[in-house]
Fold this protein.
Amino acid sequence: MEENGAYIILSDVHLGSEECNNKEFCDLLKWIYGLENQPKIIKCKDKEVTIKIPYKIILLGDIFELWAPKDLDRDNIIKDLIRPFSILSDINCDKIYVVGNHDDSLGELERKVDFATLNNGTRFNSYNRHYPKKDIKSGVASGLKIGNRSYFFLHGHQFDKRQAIFIYFSKLLGELWDPIDWFQELFNITFTKKHWKTNFVIFLCLLFGGKYFLWDVFLKSSFWRSGAWAMFTGFFALSSIPGIVAHVQASIYNSTKPIHKTAEEVIKNGHYQESKDTIDAEVVVFGHTHFASSYELRSDARKTLFLNSGCWVGTDTEMNGKMRYVNFFIYLNESGAYILKWQGSGKIYCIEAFTW
Ligand SMILES: [Mn+2]
């Protein structure tokens, strides 16, 4: 597959989360929109690079925060997405959405939003695992040829030991298995969301009240009356327990976040196994760890360049002696790949450049 032209890769915006840099993200999208009439020349080391309106924008996963939105309320995702997605749809290029782990349940949309055409004639496609897709016959995931390099795009949770168990069970089941998402869905019923704490108290009262104080009454009462008790108890259990589980999951997840790893740490210490790798590409672009960086893996057989597209959450902070910067994107064209930081008002800082 060969598709020349420039590409912009964005990942880990986490729309709907507490720390999402939505304003900055919208500013970048407006700037990309403007590139159509006015390409921008930036300096990368001592080279000049012309940033043009891309041929495609690749949204590389975790664009939406479905696992732990603000107040665990998924309505916050809808509030957050309206602006960026309306700007995005106006940008005159095709858009590709590759799902990540925090928006994994959108993978079910794969065939449903494929080739949705927007009013300016641009297309929006979604991909469940990676882009491009695997060849069904050979099982090999061939890269996309841009210029004289081949590229492969995936969110990157596939390199994560913790996520591997979800993926393993999902494969066994033949469908998506994601307990975090499951409890999020149960919790995001308006009645549960609003009243889960009170519901839990009512549930406990019904459960123990029924058992200790009303036991006699129920034993003597009709089948229908104890049936009604069971039904109410069940109803309040279902309208409260998902709230507890969702909150516990969110706090466990937040305290053990597998993020902030550089591309080098992911490939060297993570779940990446070269022997099992079926990706046939020279450059692998991924996100997930929120750390814009690069790493070149050299073996006798080949050389693979891994690029991490960073994130749009939180602020620039020092982590384990290294600076982790936010608000990143990757720009690719026929002659190179660039890791770029958005500094506001059209100011772009080039962190790393790979030219060929
Ligand atoms: Mn992720």
User: Anything to note?
Assistant: The chain has a mean pLDDT of 87. Residues 61-62, 100-102, 155, 157, 288 surround manganese (II) ion (CB under 6 Å). Residues 169 and 177 are 6 Å apart (CA to CA).
